Amino acid sequence: MPTKILEIRKRIDIDTFENRFVKWIITSIQNKLRHFQRVYRRTFADSSVFDERIIEMTDSMWNRLYKMKRFSFLVDVGDLHRIDTLSLVLQMAPGYREVYKYYLMLVKGLSLQSDIFHISIKDLAQLYEYWCFLKLHSILRDRYQLEKHDLIRVNNTGLTVRLDKSRRASIYYTNPQNNEKIVLSYNNLLNTKMPTTSQRPDSMLTLKKEDGDVEYQYVFDAKYRLNPALPGSEYYSKYRKPGPEEDDINTMHRYRDAILYSRGEEIAKTVFGAYIFSLTRIVVIMQA
């Protein structure tokens, strides 16, 4: 006859690698804050630019992190002594994934990677395209609610700015008054499956009503070249003042005629406005 019964009990153990890693992140940030304070005091102690509020702010950050470790489940979590590999839980599980993402953003924030930041001779036209796109974003951000964007990506090398001619970048907004969806795109390739040829305008603003299927598109092209409209020239006789070159104007009309929308057998134009960013003003080429 058996005299003993095997009993199995489940026990929740929070002292896992992932939780130890979270605790290690908090500790490393605390150390960086203290290091910053020491360097700041040593560098600006006798300077008029020394600001005690910066020390108070970093002290407040340090104390908040201390409370996270001291008065939460992390008090029962051990220390992390070595990191061989990162687990899938840390990279994919909700909560852990966000902690790891923002930690990378914090420690890699000063290591911006992109061709836009390389110290080299830049093409003036491309720099002007960047400026016009970012200026449009600045205007829209002040008026609408920013939802998301893919301008900046986080990877193991740091923060990568995705603003160059080899890829598309988009910023998404919502109009809080009527819930309209607005998308500002840079270098967007269009009409890949249309009867007309593919088009790639510098910047495009797409507006979609809350209860509609049609997208209203507005093209913006950055043109830094100006015709001076010298007296006696053909350009002066037509327009009487400096402005964009006629080839640039014709490009905007091409966008209007070539960018199409397909729904079943129906094909229609979707560009309701085209604008040229000249160095002195925005030139309206056509507007519905």
UniProtKB/TrEMBL annotation:
Pfam families documented for this protein: DUF2357 (PF09823), PDDEXK_7 (PF04411)
InterPro entries on file: DUF2357, PDDEXK_7
Domain DUF2357: 1-103
Protein name: DUF2357 domain-containing protein
Organism: Desulfofundulus salinus
